[in-house]
Amino acid sequence: MASKRLLKRDVNNVFGDIIEAAYIHQEANPEEDKAKTEAIVDEAIADFDELIVKINQKDVENKSQHFKAIEKELEAKAQKLIEKVNAL
Question: Is the pTM of this model over 0.70?
Answer without folding.
Answer: yes
